[in-house]
Design a protein that fits this description.
4-stranded mixed β-sheet; single chain; alpha/beta; 16% strand
Length: 150
């Protein structure tokens, strides 16, 4: 599984931890071992540009996902075709502010956002209430299982 993680900010981020999380999530979701994923940490100005360009919303947001190939999760030992999942971009400064409000660390917030973004790349969404429950329950289970194994 190819997972590339890049920090394009001045934030202190343990890139190996995020690569490990991404591999864990992709393994748990039975994604093909040849799948590719890119995880980028970007500053507020760049995130605001992406947010405006793609969602027509002003200001920076916490996380955005940009799917490439339509890679979907497999079931149990079945793995679907290989391909490039796409990119997940996270803004550490927005994540840090959210973490303060939520009462946990910025790293925990960014791990949550990375999990959330990867699930979006795999076709999960939270527009409808029933879909939100499925996605958020899965997101919570994946993240807590990963953190318990650290």
């Amino acid at each position: 599984m190819s997972v590339e993680v890049a920090n394009e900010t001045t934030a202190d981020i343990e890139l190996t931890e995020f690569a490990a999380l991404a591999r864990f999530v992709l393994d748990e979701m039975h994604v093909h071992p040849q799948a590719e994923l890119f995880l980028h940490f970007i500053d507020e100005a760049e995130m605001a540009e992406l947010h405006l360009k793609w969602l027509d919303l002003p200001g920076p947001t916490d996380v955005m996902s940009f799917p490439m190939d339509e890679v979907r999760p497999g079931k149990d030992s079945e793995q679907l075709s290989e391909g490039c999942l796409g990119d997940v971009v996270i803004c550490p400064s927005v994540a840090a502010a959210q973490a303060r409000d939520a009462g946990h660390s910025a790293t925990e917030e960014m791990l949550l956002l990375a999990t959330h973004g990867i699930l979006h790349l795999l076709g999960f969404d939270h527009v409808e209430e029933k879909d939100e429950k499925v996605m958020f329950d899965l997101q919570r289970k994946l993240l807590l299982t990963f953190l318990a194994g650290r």
